[in-house]
């Protein structure tokens, strides 16, 4: 009995400590995952608590469970519309990119550790995939808002590249143990992993999404049902011989992109579950490692990590993205730099242990060291790199709080709460605000009392305003309540003047005395900028033309609706 | 070409009747045509309104900077209007506008055009400047403030 109580005590306090320590991350800029990992190591056999945990198969099971939950949440959070710009490059990175990275790291590892080629490649495959959670907790934690092309590519890449790394690892492990037949068998294995993963994931996800939307449940049950359905898809796919990780990500994607009020119950819970998985996973992995053994391979493993960060990842990104997609150089560099490794490599490193490969602890320790280095070097410099390579887009004001009213099942009205921070709104009567016609100020709070807003009510700084409106009113509302500091930032980025995307180029040329080539005469500004940017434009793309910086400042779907003019 | 030289005291207008965006631009066109005989008020108006059609020049914070090129002006011309009451200008942030800085440039002066626009924007982007301009109680005060800010900006 005591063992159970001890488990509660140690497990609970470790979790609580991890969550408290997450505050440290934002204060000191230490990557969060590193803190969890460090806490696990501190609690472990050579740390303060001296907890001995060597149960690889249990860690393996926890790893699967946690990864599945993290991927499900990742899918739920990925908006299908970001696929417009991010899907193809991400797919290229997630397949060929992983392959190239693994191969390069493999050859280098073979040379450093004096391994056979298959053993070397196994090291490469284990550290081949980037970690969605690592990348995104890092980015959103620092308030970095990437431009959509870079953000979407990284997000979709990290969600979809695990199956490839898992496949390569499994294949190489079987090759080493001698379970695998010829190349045909390998190819069949590959096809079934991805084919079944794709079909069951999309199909199961679609059915789950329909079911969740159709059912009328107690609010708390939606998230649990989504989780249960996700796990079922994962299990079914794996039983059939497909990649469960791919399937559960796709299922999440299907569920998350089926609009409806159920999503409002699902998303917050899954956010928490993903955090729980992160913390649990990293704590367990930190417990599992033996720091002194890690120390023994520190130098060679460090070399492998450096090779991954500075040679393999950049080369893979360069080869798979640059020739085929319209990425700028600085965007390509940023993507190359943000190849963060997280939990996946460490979980994958347990595969050889479970599979009974000889010298299996080497893989585990190397993977562990690589992840540590990657989190430290790449994770630690992420914000700096984003600024330096100018892949950031400023975010304006968003409502302090928003929530659905829950009245209409589709396209529901929401309540948006804003604070008045914009000095220029001070003393402005409400009727003079350019309010979107479908929206309404329902209440105004000042000095802890509620006022009944009328057209003649004058706003004051510090007022809190509740607006009822639809999500399509958000753009104008955000603009309206934009604080001075944010507005300044936006203006510095997007320029002072804004032109409509539908404006004719010849009129613009006339207004500013610009020369157009004959083909450009009949274009709208949107078409012109899209042509100059090339490929899929995203907010933040800029074009230098006639001494003016033309910056895409707003888009709807794939169309440019506003263009900023930054003057020098 | 500095702003100060193109904004003589008589073109800093205080307490201009507002009404609507169109009315204000009309008011300025008539005024400038009287001030500078070579300009035609109809022509100035249609150029300014033509520019507004491409996207409002209301840059936010209650400020608008209408601007256009005109074949009939020989040197850049500026005018400043403080409106009696704020008007709807389709501004980027939706705020009503009460500070209007108009710029007209000759057709050949394209680089000057952009640099002048940049200067005006820099001055009007300053929250403190805007607040002081709004608080100005007379044409004299307004003029002094504006000149001081323009000088401050040119020397810095």
UniProtKB/TrEMBL annotation, chain A:
It comes from Vreelandella maris. Coiled coil: none annotated. It is found in: Cell membrane. GO terms for biological process: potassium ion transport; proton transmembrane transport. It comes from the Bacteria. This is Potassium/proton antiporter. NCBIfam families: PRK05326.1-1 (NF003714), PRK05326.1-2 (NF003715), PRK05326.1-3 (NF003716). The chain crosses the membrane at residues 6-25, 32-53, 59-78, 90-113, 187-209, 221-251, 272-291, 297-321, 333-354, 360-377. Keywords: Antiport, Cell inner membrane, Cell membrane, Ion transport, Membrane, Potassium, Potassium transport, Transmembrane, Transmembrane helix, Transport. GO terms for molecular function: antiporter activity; flavin adenine dinucleotide binding; monoatomic cation transmembrane transporter activity. Residues 403-483 form the RCK C-terminal domain. One of its GO terms (cellular component) is plasma membrane. Its main location: membrane. It is a multi-pass membrane protein.
UniProtKB/TrEMBL annotation, chain B:
Keywords: Sugar transport, Transport. Residues 5-149 form the PTS EIIA type-2 domain. Gene3D superfamilies: Mannitol-specific EII, Chain A. InterPro entries: PTrfase/Anion_transptr, PTS_EIIA_type-2_dom, PTS_SugarTrans_NitroReg. It holds the Pfam family PTS_EIIA_2. The keyword Oxidoreductase does not apply. The keyword Transport applies. GO terms for molecular function: protein kinase activator activity. This is PTS sugar transporter subunit IIA.
């Amino acid at each position: 009995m005591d063992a159970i109580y001890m488990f509660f005590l140690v497990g609970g306090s470790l979790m609580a400590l991890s969550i408290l320590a997450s505050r440290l991350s934002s204060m000191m800029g230490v990557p969060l995952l590193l803190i969890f990992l460090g806490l696990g190591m501190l609690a472990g056999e050579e740390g303060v608590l001296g907890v001995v945990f060597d149960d690889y198969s249990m860690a393996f099971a926890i790893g699967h469970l946690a990864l599945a939950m993290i991927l499900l949440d990742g899918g739920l959070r990925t908006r299908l519309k970001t696929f417009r710009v991010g899907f193809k490059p991400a797919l290229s990175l997630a397949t060929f990119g992983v392959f190239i990275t693994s191969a390069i790291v493999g050859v280098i590892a073979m040379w450093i550790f004096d391994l056979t080629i298959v053993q070397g490649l196994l090291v490469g495959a284990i550290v081949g995939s980037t970690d969605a959670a690592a990348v995104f907790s890092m980015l959103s934690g620092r308030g970095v808002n990437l431009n959509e092309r870079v953000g979407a590519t990284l997000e979709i890449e990290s969600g979809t590249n695990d199956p490839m790394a898992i496949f390569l690892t499994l294949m190489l492990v079987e090759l080493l143990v001698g379970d695998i037949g010829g190349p045909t068998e390998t190819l069949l294995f590959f096809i079934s992993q991805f084919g079944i993963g794709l079909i069951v994931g999309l199909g199961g996800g679609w059915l789950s999404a329909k079911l969740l939307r159709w059912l009328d449940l107690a609010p708390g049950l939606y998230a649990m049902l989504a989780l249960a359905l996700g796990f079922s898809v994962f299990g079914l796919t794996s039983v059939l011989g497909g990649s469960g990780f791919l399937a559960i990500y796709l299922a999440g994607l299907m569920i998350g992109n089926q609009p409806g009020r159920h999503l409002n119950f699902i998303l917050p819970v899954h956010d928490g579950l993903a955090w729980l998985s992160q913390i649990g996973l990293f704590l367990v992995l930190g417990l599992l490692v033996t720091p002194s053994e890690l120390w023994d391979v520190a130098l060679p493993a460090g070399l492998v990590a450096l090779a991954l960060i500075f040679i393999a990842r950049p080369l893979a990104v360069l080869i798979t993205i640059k020739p085929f997609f319209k990425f700028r150089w600085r965007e390509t560099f940023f993507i190359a730099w943000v190849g963060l490794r997280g939990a996946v490599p460490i979980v994958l490193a347990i595969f050889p242990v479970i599979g009974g490969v000889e010298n299996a602890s080497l893989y585990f320790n190397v993977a562990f060291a690589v992840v540590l280095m990657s989190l430290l070097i790449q994770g630690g410099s992420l914000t700096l790199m984003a600024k330096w390579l100018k892949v950031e887009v400023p975010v304006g004001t968003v409502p302090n709080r928003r929530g659905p009213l829950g009245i209409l099942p589709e396209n529901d009205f929401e309540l948006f709460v804003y604070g008045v921070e914009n000095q220029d709104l001070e003393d402005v009567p409400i009727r003079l605000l350019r309010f979107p016609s479908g929206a309404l100020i329902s209440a105004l709070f000042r000095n802890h009392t509620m006022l009944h807003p009328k057209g003649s009510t004058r706003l004051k700084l510090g007022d809190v305003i509740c607006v009822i409106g639809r999500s399509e009113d958000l753009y104008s509302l955000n603009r309206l309540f934009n604080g001075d500091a944010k507005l300044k930032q936006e203006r510095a980025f997007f320029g002072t003047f804004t032109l409509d995307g539908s404006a004719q180029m010849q009129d613009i040329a006339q207004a500013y005395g610009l020369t157009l080539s004959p083909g450009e005469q009949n274009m709208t500004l949107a078409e012109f900028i899209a042509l100059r940017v090339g490929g899929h434009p995203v907010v933040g793309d800029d074009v230098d033309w006639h001494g003016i910086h033309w910056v895409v400042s707003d888009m709807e779907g794939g169309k440019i609706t506003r263009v900023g003019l930054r003057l020098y | 070409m500095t702003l100060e030289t193109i904004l003589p005291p008589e073109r800093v207008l205080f307490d201009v009747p507002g009404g609507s965006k169109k009315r204000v631009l009309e008011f300025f066109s008539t005024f400038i045509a009287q001030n500078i005989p070579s300009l035609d008020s109809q022509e100035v108006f249609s150029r300014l309104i033509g520019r507004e059609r491409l996207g409002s020049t209301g840059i936010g914070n209650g400020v608008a900077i209408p601007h256009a090129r005109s074949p009939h002006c020989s040197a850049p011309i500026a005018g400043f209007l403080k409106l009696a009451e704020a008007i709807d200008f389709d501004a980027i942030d939706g705020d009503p506008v009460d500070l209007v800085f108009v710029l007209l440039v000759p057709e050949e002066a394209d680089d000057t055009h952009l640099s002048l626009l940049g200067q005006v924007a820099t001055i009007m982007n300053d929250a403190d400047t805007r607040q002081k301009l709004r608080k100005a109680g007379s044409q004299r005060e307004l003029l002094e403030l504006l000149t001081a800010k323009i000088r401050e900006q040119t020397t810095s």
